[in-house]
C-alpha cells in the first residue's frame, strides 16, 4: 500500500477537521507516494519510539501526540525534534499524528481506555454538539458496583505499569458503578463529571488543588493514572483499524516501549512517615 492509502484510512477513522483548533495533526514527514508494509503505533513520538520504528522496519510511525505542536521555522538535525525528523526521513519512515481528532472519534482514545477497564460506554462526557455521540471523554458503567479501592486495583491491572502507578482520591470504601474516563490530561472536565453524576472519574495529570477542591465539594471520586498509560490502549485500537482495512498487506505493530517520562518511583518508609 502507499502511505497515502494508509493516511486515507486514518483520516476516515480520525477526521483531521475534528481536531481542536490549537492542535497539529496529520503527516509530519513522509512521502505519500512511498510504499508502506509495516506500521508502528505509539503514544509519544520520542527518540525511543523513533528508534523502535527504524529497528522494526516500519515505514510509518503512527503517534498520538504531535511532535511539532507549536510552529517551527526549521528542523535542523542538532535540535532534538529536528534530529527525529532527520532520522525518520533517512530511514524512509513517515510520521503521522492523530491527537485530539483521535480523542473525539468514535471509537476514540477514551473508548479504548473505557474498554480496557471493562466499562460499557453509554456516551461522551463532553459531547461535540448537544445530543452528539462523539466528543471528549466517555461515561460508562461497570457490570456491578465495587469499592473505590477495588476499582483502583482494576484500573492498575488494566493499564501498563508505570512508576506513578494508580492513585485514587475519595473514600476507599465508596461504591462505584458509573464511571467517567478521559485519556490524557482531563482536569478541565472536573465540573462536567460532577454534572454527569458519575461515581468516579479516571484521567491523568490531576493536580493537588483542583483534586482537593473537587473532593471537598462532594464530587465523584478520582482515579489518577500516568498520562502515557491512559492513552496506551488507543494504540491497539488504531492498530486494529489498520489491520481491518488492509488485512495481511500491512503489518501493524504496537510499541512496547514505555515513554512515560517518569523513570523512578520512591515511597517514604511506612514507619516514621507523616502522621
Ligand atoms: Zn495525551
Write the layout of secondary structure elements.
Elements: H1 3-13, E1 26-29, E2 38-42, H2 47-56, E3 60-63, H3 80-90, E4 94-97, H4 100-104, H5 109-117, E5 120-127, E6 135-147, H6 148-158, E7 167-169, E8 175-185, H7 190-196, E9 200-204, H8 208-216, E10 221-225, H9 227-246, E11 251-254
Parallel strand pairs: 2-3, 2-11, 3-4, 8-9, 9-10
Antiparallel strand pairs: 1-4, 5-6, 6-8, 7-10
Helix pairs in contact: 1-9, 5-9
This protein binds zinc ion.
Walk me through this protein's architecture.
- This is GTP cyclohydrolase 1 type 2 homolog.
- A divalent metal cation 1 binds at residues 65, 103, 227, 231.
- A divalent metal cation 2 binds at residue 64.
- By secondary structure, the protein is an alpha/beta fold.
- The protein folds into two domains: 3-102 and 231-254, NIF3 (NGG1p interacting factor 3)-like (Udp-n-acetylmuramoylalanyl-d-glutamate--2,6- Diaminopimelate Ligase, Chain: A, domain 1, 3-Layer(aba) Sandwich); 106-225, NIF3 (NGG1p interacting factor 3)-like (Udp-n-acetylmuramoylalanyl-d-glutamate--2,6- Diaminopimelate Ligase, Chain: A, domain 1), CATH 3.40.1390.
- The chain contains nine helices and eleven strands.
- The strands form two sheets. It has a six-stranded mixed β-sheet, with helices on both faces. It has a five-stranded mixed β-sheet with strand order 1-4-3-2-11, sandwiched between helices.
- The mean pLDDT is 96.
- The structure holds zinc ion (ZN).
- The site of zinc ion (ZN) has 4 residues, from α9.
